[in-house]
Here is the input.
Amino acid sequence: MMKNRILALAGLALMSLATACDKNAVQDITTPAPSSRIRFFNFGVNAPSVNFYANDAKMSATVSATGAEAVTGVGYGSVSSNGQYNGVAPGTYTFTGKIAAAVDKDLSVSPLQTQIADGKWYSYYMSGFYNTTSKNVEAFVIEDNLPAQDYTGAYVRFVNAISNSSPMVLSAKEQATGTTTPIGTAIAYKSGGTFVRLNPGLYDLSARVSGAAADAFPARTSVSFAAGRIYSISARGDITLATNTTATNRPFLDNTANY
Here is the structure.
């Protein structure tokens, strides 16, 4: 039931994206929507803004006030299409981010070949550190194995996109009760954990290396998890900046809803 609702929302997102980006042929809605889904994160430290592609098909773009494609693209710390999934047919793809700016326009910086299975959902992450000489950054894809919808609770998982981190455990402390719940086990770089049920409410989130007495970097506080919703909490940034409170590349916990 939950995936049927997501499919309907994703279909609307596909139609909106196609209408907004018609001049750039981002999507073709003349054929039935494919059964598989993918979305894209730019979490590559110092990476340029990009448009995302599946082989030669553009999956994301930003539009200027004139209706033409803008050169802004999806910047660091952002997810394409406001976190919505894009439809993709099953098969083998090379997914990549291509530079959106006029300089090095459409240069592929994060190619990754991945098999997409029928009816499954995925997240693609640009990650690691952007190499300004080779103009390349790492990438990985994880499957989004979404749980059944629960109208009395929220589901949360942890994804580790910090390349210079140790495996970490995400914990969620419920403000109302003070109860702390580990969100699965320690998650290594380029990996994602399973979805864990939480009571709806406000939470303080922290990531800690297994066995450590202190958090790996400052907690993210007052995060709201709503009943019936599913969330991915993704760690991004540079772990060496753990004590920095202002740097753009400091480690940070991103909260993006899967649904």
The mean pLDDT is 89. The radius of gyration is 18 Å.
